[in-house]
Amino acid sequence: MRSKLKLLRCGLPGYLFAALSFAALVAPAATAEEQFPKEAWSKIDPAQLGWSPEKLADARTFVETLPPSSVVVIDHGREVAEWGDATKKIKISSMRKSLLSALFGIYAPSNHFDLDSSLGNLGIDDDPPLTQEERRATVRMLLESRSGVYHGYVAGTPGMREGWPKRGSHSPGSYWFYNNWDFNALGSIFEKEFKTPIAEAFSKRIATRIGMQDFRVEDMYYLRAAVDASPDFNKSLHPAYHFRMTARDLARFGYLFLRNGEWRGTSIVPKTWVNESTHAHSRTKAGEGYGYLWWIDGFDLPVSSFSAQGALAKYVVVVPTRGLVVVYLNHTEFPDDASGLTEDAVKKLPSISHAQMGQLLKLLLDAQTRVSM
Asked: Which tens digits make up the pLDDT trace of 249-281?
């Protein structure tokens, strides 16, 4: 330290030298480099980051009243909590859609792909065939879940079928509805246009580059329509692309987006895409926003957030103003073949409600007594 101060002093006025000397002595030990995980997340005593040990214990006690889960809490790149098995691979259900959004953000610009290309121009169809009106829907509309294509689709919960619009009831781009046809078709479009399987693209362009510890290409698999699938329920040419991931790897994905798509000084996902995809392009009746396959705000929090969400309580929640990433993975997985499940049967599966997730987030926000660094 003394040698550095000696070099700094040369040519500086006394008052400025004194100020620099004081800053060097009181600067926090953590550097920008240390704010990214290396082989593993850096664990730290939460109290050193201004967390209340008592209030953090309250949050853990609440988690212990819920079904078995994996929880990871990251504050400015350091792990302040890990409850449950953060190395357990879990089917993340609809969180897969936010992963695909990130891939579109990487591949579309570098391939000069126009998000306003229509399904008709891209040669995207289905069985039964799309109508001429449906073929007017664009890739951007699919990313926003505003395609107006209410065709049968693969996967999804019984609740997603509730209020399912009739085909042709809304013109492309005019109406938001959480629609698995859009999300599955996006997977087909990605692989067709960029000529690479989703799993390989995710592994090469994201998982490897941000040092995910557990993800392997074989952790993604396709779910296709049964041969005898009913056209009005789940018959479609476009498969679902399911991921199995760990909480500690998903924390890296959330942190990548917290850092505007940058990892150790390298742009992984363009910042413009991060901003656009986590901006609300639609609002639900409950007041949540929806971007490009990301949920915006929600949970009745006092601060802004965005999140990837999956059935049966799978969450990656990012709170930018707090530097926070919270991963919650309920260990109960939604079954691949859910065609025979009723909504009541789903409700009996071990899970937590959206409100309970909100309660956990509020406990964590309250425990983080130092809100900036």
From this structure: 999 999 999 999 999 999 999 999 999 999 999
Distance CA(91)–CA(243), nearest Å, equals 6
For range 122-150, the mean pLDDT: 97
Higher pLDDT, 32 or 34: 34
**Ramachandran area for residue 271 (φ above 0: left; ψ -120 to 50: alpha; else beta):** alpha
Tokens of 94: 């609809």
Residue 297 has which token pair?
């705000």
Q: Is residue 18 part of a domain?
A: no
Please give the sequence-ordered ranges of beta strands (E in DSSP) within 279-323, or none if there are none: 282-283, 289-290, 295-296, 306-310, 314-319
Tokens encoding 217: 């290409």
Q: Could you report how far apart the first and last alpha carbons of the chain are, in Å?
A: 23
- Average pLDDT over the chain, rounded to an integer: 89
Place of tokens 């039964």: 128
Q: Would you call 329 helix, strand, or coil by DSSP? A: strand
Residue 303 lies in a domain: yes
CA-wise closest residue to 42 among 31, 27, 53: 31
Question: Which 8-state DSSP code applies to residue 70?
Answer: E
Q: H or E segment at 74?
A: strand 69-75
- Which tens digit of pLDDT belongs to each residue from 288-328? 999 999 999 999 999 999 999 999 999 999 999 999 999 99
pTM: 0.89
Q: Rounded to an integer, what distance in angstroms lies between the CA atom of residue 304 and that of residue 65?
A: 27
* Angle subtended at Cα 107 by Cα 245 and Cα 201, rounded to the nearest 5 degrees: 35
pLDDT at res. 232: 58
d(CA 104, CA 188): 12
Classify residue 231: in a domain, yes or no: yes
Judge residue 326's burial from the number of C-beta atoms within 10 Å of its C-beta, 0-12 exposed, 13-18 middle, 19 or more buried.
buried
Beta bridge partners of 316: 308, 327
CATH code for position 164: 3.40.710.10
Range of the domain at 220: 49-367
Residue 27, domain member (yes or no): no
Number of domains in the chain: 1
